[in-house]
Fold this protein.
Amino acid sequence: MPTARRPSRLENRRRAERKGRLAEAVAALFLQLKGYRVLARRVRTKAGEIDLVVRRGNVLVFVEVKARHTLDSGVFALHPATLQRIGSAARVLAPRFLGRCTTTRIDAVVVRPWAVPVHMVAVWRELG
């Protein structure tokens, strides 16, 4: 009888990558349905990566997407070090996307299996 093979780190990493990309696509669609326009996805800077850059009206929003099984685990994944990194990346990217926007903020979207995503507005306020 064959024994179950344990997935390698590379396989686990690829699976997590696919899960993250799917969650970002779901979050982008969800935000579009709420009236946001997606300007960019997975933007990398030396300071870090921003999952989505969206705009609605005169508000430019940098979005962190978390794919988790529960809302609580998604919220707890937004710890201060993660938000600090996102804030640093957002400061670098803001001039590139600002255009006519007068306000910037950092939001989060938690994507859970078989549930409507949860959009959390202004999870981090320090952009200056």
Remarks:
- The radius of gyration is 16 Å.
- The chain has a mean pLDDT of 88.
- DSSP finds three helices and five strands in the chain.
